[in-house]
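Just scan my protein:

——
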Amino acid sequence: MPKLLQKMSLTDVMPYVFVQPVASWVRRLAGLVLVTVLSCAVSRCYGQSPIQGAVRELDLGDGVRMEVIYLPPGEFLMGSTPEERAWATGIEGGATPGTERETYEGNARPCQIKQGLWMGRTEVSVGQFRRFVSETGYVTDAEKPGGKTQCFDPAWTGYQLTTSVVHPWSPMPGKSWKDPNWAFPQQDDFPVVCVSWNDGRAFCQWLTQRERAAGRLGQDLEYRLPTDAEWEYGCRGGQPRGYFWWGNELEDGEGRLNISAIDLLPGRTRTWPLAKAPWSDGYSFVSPVDHYGVRGRNGFGLADMCGGVWEVVLDHFDPKGGHEEPYLVKDNRRPVCRGGNYFDVPGNARCAVRLGLMSDSYSDSRDGFRICLGYPISIPE
């Protein structure tokens, strides 16, 4: 997928030395006010003050439900270290060495999530997205006239790396979230794929309007895609950093995630090529959401944060790394996607991995999204 100090003298520094304690106190007070405001907003919305891991169940109608989990404010190290990137492009990680892809993560740096938020337990499922479409009649970007989406090409037999590289994914008209060209039946408990940034935002807007109409949501919160920083904070599950949410060891990931592993492709005698996890996770393609249960959930209780499907977030792509505050543009949007997918090598399914999509209407059978409930963010139009 084509994801894409000025020197100071002692005299210069002196004012900062004396101002720093006051500035630090002001920042802490401002942060406390922000946290208090959001907590009050959530309390008004749900009638109680949330604690970490609190779960709310949303009724989408027709028996379809969705869980969101509360993540308190906190700090973490955003991005990756040189050691982590060396592992990712090494024999076990299997990511392609010599490219700039790992630089997109940025160097590990302190990042603060100042306001608590609720995040979807899982990616949005096919059944949940179907409920949205049923109620609104929404048509995804891939389904519009001239639309198409990237899907697995059943004629693909291998990369043929010694001659001309052949990729397993092709743009296909007539395919969509309803039919991602799997070699097996679509299931309501699969994460929805072949949906774009625009489609994910539309789902969130529908959910916001639905909850407000029912009197369950005020104007000070909205359902939306998580920001780049919120997503990585959620992925790390309360840990300051690590290659994966459970730590640095790939071997400890068995039974926790769906990535390229020892699973035969449907109707074939081969697995995905290149580096892979040294176990079978039961699925060569997509697995049901929360399939791995408690073992597949991180410290916040979020499932499938590594592997599964790429998750499109609100921010737009900055190749220098993610931002603590939302990074949004008006033109030439390239949304960030996070977390790796079922086809990826282990090095591409880490907490820090981030890529940029071609456009806000681009969709792919390896891409889905997860919702969050947080403070409203204005999108440049």
Observations:
- The first helix runs from residue 10 to 46.
